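Collaborator request, handled under Task 6.
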Amino acid sequence: MKVHSVLGPGFLESVYCEALTKEFERQHIPFEKEKKLNVLYEGILLDKTFRVDFFCYNEIMVEIKAVGFLLPITELQILNYIKAANKKLGILVNFGEASLRYRRVLNSMHS
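Structure tokens returned to the collaborator:
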């Protein structure tokens, strides 16, 4: 990914998010930044919401991290996001390692 090859590791997550915003705009990728999404509990809309870093093409959730390595709980976070929004695909991107790391996370319960 161009952002990682230009900036490399070592910046805060917010720097990568801003650079990725510029790159999405440059490539005409439709997205919403820090999209607020609702959570349903047994059909009841909760007051608490969550924000995903990027919501692309109105289908794909992208969560950005800038850490030395990804913990399993981080993958659960994006999985819960896509389940709560009833979306099929989430992408977890870690800019914090020497080589860019990403994981595709699928919602097996997507309808």
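The cover message to the collaborator said: "The two ends are 30 Å apart (CA to CA). The chain has one domain: 2-106. Please let us know whether this matches your experimental observations."
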